[in-house]
Amino acid sequence: MAFYRKWRALAISGYVNVNMIRISSHSASSLSRFNCKKEDDGFWLGRLDHKDWLSPNEVLKIFTNLRDPELIMDSFKKVSRRMDYKPREALYQLLIDKLAHAHKFGAIDELLEIAKSENCRLSDEFFYRVIKIYGNVANHLERAIETLLQMPEFHCWPTVKTFNCVLNMLVCTRQYEVIHEVYLSAPKLGISLDTCCFNILIKGLCQCGKLDAAFSLLHEMPEQGCRPNATTYSTLMHALCKNGRVNEAFEVCERMESGGCYPDTITFNILISGLCKQGRVAEGLDFLKKMKLKGCYPNSGTYQALLYGLLSSNKFLEAKDFIAMMISEGKGPSCLSYKLAIDGLCSEKLLTAVDVVLNQMVHQGFIPRMGTWKKILECMFQEMDFHNSLNLINLADDYKEIKSWVA
């Protein structure tokens, strides 16, 4: 109790508080100097010379904070010589990401060779990322293919996901002559082909116009234990429609449904777009109703394909009504659609309809260009319809677009 009274008296006198403030100020100043210290590359490289045990997380932290990519390889070799540390996949992945960002792809090759010589255990996910770097960042597909084929040398067998990644890169870059070679390597790599693999191959064959070969693959899929899905059939239907074989595309759709695979919105969009490109817009509109009855709801692409079909068929009044229906269902037409509709209505001197579409266009947030105003003005002065002309002039004046034209 006496001790407590003594310290209470000191606190009241202010002695303890003053010293506490002095200590706090000193500590804060020291902490501030510590935090303000610039941790540059030299600081982090110095940590590699630490004589105590260096944990894997500490190594990752050092290389994460290393800014200069030129220092990566020498620093990696330095840390590899330590007796208390052996590089693992996490470090290799970190360094490869940093080297890829710096576009130092030759250093990535060197790192992979070191990993192989050190028998470092690397996963399929690691190689998947490396292959994507070679293909998408370095634009070096040959090296991506080599990495896939060399994976067993690292005691790692690729999954079908990694295999399909390479196939898809080849299809996207239209290197069709190489696709077959990679496809034939599947058994050597222990790959069991899946539906996605066949979809990629069918897409490639369709792109280069080999539709018969694409259908042959479709027939081969069940023999390989794979079942075609909506993407498989949609790819084939898109190729048929692109080549003007719309009726055959509908036959494929019927075959698809009879096989227990039901079309999705993308499938319907392909068929509707194919009909509209052939001027069969009425059939496209009927197919839209069937689409809804089958429980597949249209999206903006569906409506836009039909709207373009109406416009290209010079059915401008029907297009005006269709635009109103799209807006009511929350599917806004494109700016080009409005322009084409207004141009078409002006060509037929339908100023009242032009007024409606122009107002819809403005309310949807699109600003008509000078060419559109010119068309409207020409139509107005040809018809000399004073009432509609006055409304259109007022609307144009609100947007400050017509003033410069009149002047």
Tag the structure with descriptive keywords:
mainly alpha; elongated; Serine Threonine Protein Phosphatase 5, Tetratricopeptide repeat; 407 residues
The major β-sheet equals:
none
CATH second-level architecture of the domain at 193-294: Alpha Horseshoe
Outline: elongated
CATH topology of the domain at 193-294: Serine Threonine Protein Phosphatase 5, Tetratricopeptide repeat
Percent in strands: under 5%
Cα-to-Cα separation, first versus last residue: 98 Å
The count of β-strands is 0
How do the SSEs run, as a string of H and E?
A: HHHHHHHHHHHHHHHHHHHHHHHH
Separate helix tally: 24
Give the overall average pLDDT: 85
CATH class of the domain at 193-294: Mainly Alpha
Low-confidence stretches: 6-37
SS-based structural class?
mainly alpha
In quaternary terms, these chains amount to: single chain
Radius of gyration: 34 Å
Q: What level of helicity do the residues show? A: over 70%
- In CATH, the homologous superfamily of the domain at 193-294 goes by the name Tetratricopeptide repeat domain
